[in-house]
TrEMBL record:
EC number of this enzyme: 6.3.5.-
UniProt keyword annotations, A-Z: ATP-binding, Ligase, Nucleotide-binding, Protein biosynthesis
Residue ranges of every copy of the Asn/Gln amidotransferase domain listed in the record: 342-498
Self-association and partners: Heterotrimer of A, B and C subunits.
Enzyme class of the recorded protein, top EC level: ligase
Its biological purpose: Allows the formation of correctly charged Asn-tRNA(Asn) or Gln-tRNA(Gln) through the transamidation of misacylated Asp-tRNA(Asn) or Glu-tRNA(Gln) in organisms which lack either or both of asparaginyl-tRNA or glutaminyl-tRNA synthetases. The reaction takes place in the presence of glutamine and ATP through an activated phospho-Asp-tRNA(Asn) or phospho-Glu-tRNA(Gln).
Catalytic activities: L-aspartyl-tRNA(Asn) + L-glutamine + ATP + H2O = L-asparaginyl-tRNA(Asn) + L-glutamate + ADP + phosphate + 2 H(+); L-glutamyl-tRNA(Gln) + L-glutamine + ATP + H2O = L-glutaminyl-tRNA(Gln) + L-glutamate + ADP + phosphate + H(+)
Taxonomic source organism: Sphingosinicella rhizophila
InterPro entries in the cross-refs: Asn/Gln-tRNA_amidoTrfase_suB/E, Asn/Gln-tRNA_Trfase_suB/E_cat, Asn/Gln_amidotransferase, Asn/Gln_tRNA_amidoTrase-B-like, GatB, GatB_C_1, GatB_Yqey_C_2, Gln-tRNA_amidoTrfase_suB_CS
PROSITE patterns: GATB
NCBIfam families linked to this entry: gatB (TIGR00133), PRK05477.1-2 (NF004012), PRK05477.1-4 (NF004014), PRK05477.1-5 (NF004015)
Family from the record: Belongs to the GatB/GatE family. GatB subfamily.
Record's protein name: Aspartyl/glutamyl-tRNA(Asn/Gln) amidotransferase subunit B
Pfam families xref list: GatB_N, GatB_Yqey
Length: 499
């Protein structure tokens, strides 16, 4: 295991940061954990609330089997132990957005036990790996939401989220830097999206993290931790860790003590603030939910879940390196998100069919084009791979036109920019705008003759030994032909003409 060298330099020496994350991931399901109410995002307040969600008298919860299946599939993807026996408990507390007066969760017998996840640290060829332990994954229902901006004097309650199924994925305190925490969240989000158990949309709140941070002298025992609740972006998680760790160092070095408490992150001020003192488990008066039988999984269920898993990001990354010959960097970029991997594989399929070549023959050039040209254009225009105006089939046509000499690399970039702007096919753009590359030796020779006649002094200098001027003649010829000349033919003819 690679140990981070991230340290905080305090006035009295170095401090090490210890980080654990509790990620709440909304389970992909059309219905809630214990009711048939919809989970669709963005609905009108209180329009997706069943009698169970609203805790009406006499209502009994009925477990959603799909939520169980997705939690098991997630655990298998994280190489975690699946507990055939699990049980739901009542976590008792009173808050305005919790109509039952308790939350149904799993404390003593979670559905998933220990596992781990591999993260990549560093960039390029200097990337190293580290494995972060998973403590447990348990299922629980979400609470509702208080709205404080609807009335000048009152807070309103929206119960649309009440009862939505969550997987709480609890890491071990194995992370030692904001970079490691960021890599962990990105990798976990990637796995969840590959599996299809959570959409990972942090902006909509379907994935958020409670950030546990403590500091210690290197090699000493763990210090007192604080928990910052509901941080909803990778950038904010990393900023929370950096701010909170430095705050704790300042407190300790000034002779103070860290209080175990719950805090919140203020993105506008870039700081954490105290919310409440941290409760211990017994404060919640946990006990087995009397309305729900224990959950017992059969071997057949586990096997079906295992068989339903797709190729996961680590396996796909290794395959890209070994079978397609991609660099470690290219393979990691293309497999970091499931939609990017799907787009790339659709491109490869279309390109091999069009060019009549194997994936191994076109994989490297295709990956370089996706990462450099396509991703660069999407970032520049604010689009995503899902909203790309260029489809994999269109990308394959463009690359095939470059490969067969119809387009030069320069012309290919021009055509691609038009494709990004218009969404039109490369072949149509080439025909309509006359951008086809020419290998007509007669036409190219005529232009070369004109360039040499207009630059007789430089011709004499080149023939006198200034070999670097060769690039000048190539550039002038290509410019005169509006970039449509075949560079290989231009080079060959120039060498003959210049002698």
């Amino acid at each position: 295991m690679v140990v981070s060298n991230y340290r905080i330099q305090g006035a009295t020496g170095e401090w090490e940061v210890v980080i654990g994350l509790e990620v709440h991931a909304q389970v992909t399901s059309k219905a809630k954990l214990f009711s048939g109410a919809s989970t669709q995002f963005g609905a009108e307040p209180n329009s997706q609330v069943s009698l169970v969600d609203a805790a009406m008298p006499g209502m009994l919860p009925v477990l959603n089997g799909e939520c169980v299946r997705q939690a098991v599939r997630t655990g298998l993807a994280l190489e975690a132990a699946i507990n055939k026996f699990s049980r739901f408990d009542r976590k008792n507390y009173f808050y305005a957005d919790l109509p039952q007066g308790y939350q149904i969760s799993q404390l003593y017998h979670p559905i998933v036990g220990e596992g781990e996840i591999e993260i990549l640290l560093g960039e390029g060829d200097r990337q190293v790996t580290k494995r972060i332990g998973i403590e447990r994954i348990h299922l629980e229902q979400d609470a509702g939401k208080l709205m404080h901006d609807q009335h000048p004097s009152f807070s309103y309650v929206d119960l649309n989220r009440s009862g939505v199924a969550l997987m709480e994925i609890v890491s071990k305190p194995d992370m030692r830097s904001p970079e490691e925490a960021g890599a962990y969240i990105r990798k976990l989000r990637s796995v969840l999206r590959y599996v299809g158990s959570c959409d990972g949309n942090m902006e909509q709140g379907s994935m958020r993290a409670d950030v546990n941070v403590s500091v210690r002298r290197p090699g000493e025992s763990f210090g007192t931790r604080t928990e910052t609740k509901n941080v909803n972006s990778v950038r904010f998680i990393m900023a929370t860790i950096e701010y909170e760790a430095n705050r704790q160092v300042d407190v300790l070095e000034s002779g103070g003590a860290i209080v175990q408490e719950t805090r919140l992150w203020d993105p506008d001020k870039g700081e954490t603030r105290s919310l409440r003192s941290k409760e211990d488990a017994h404060d919640y008066r946990y006990f087995p939910d009397p309305d729900l039988l224990p959950l017992e999984l059969t071997d057949d269920v586990l096997e079906e879940c295992r068989a339903s898993l797709p190729e996961l990001p680590d396996a796909k990354r290794h395959r890209y390196e070994q079978e397609l010959g991609l660099s470690a960097y290219n393979a990691s970029v293309l497999t970091a998100d499931v939609e990017s991997a799907r787009w790339f594989e659709a491109l490869l399929e279309a390109l091999t069919a069009r060019a009549g070549k194997s994936p191994q023959e076109v994989g490297k050039s295709a990956s370089n084009w996706v990462i450099s040209d396509l991703f660069g254009a999407l970032n520049r225009t604010g689009a995503t791979i899902e909203t790309s105006p260029v489809t994999p089939a269109q990308g394959a046509e463009l690359l095939a036109l470059i490969a067969d000499g119809t387009l030069s690399a320069t012309l290919g970039k021009q055509v691609f920019e038009i494709m990004i702007e218009t969404g039109r096919d490369a072949g149509l753009i080439v025909e309509e705008r006359g951008l086809r590359q020419t290998s007509d030796t007669g036409a190219i020779e005529a232009v070369i003759a004109e360039v040499m006649a207009a630059n007789e002094d430089k011709v004499a200098e080149y023939r006198g030994g200034k070999d670097k001027l060769f690039g000048f003649f190539v550039g002038q010829t290509m410019k005169a032909m509006a970039g449509k000349a075949n560079p290989a033919v231009v080079n060959e003819l120039l060498k003959k003409k210049l002698g």
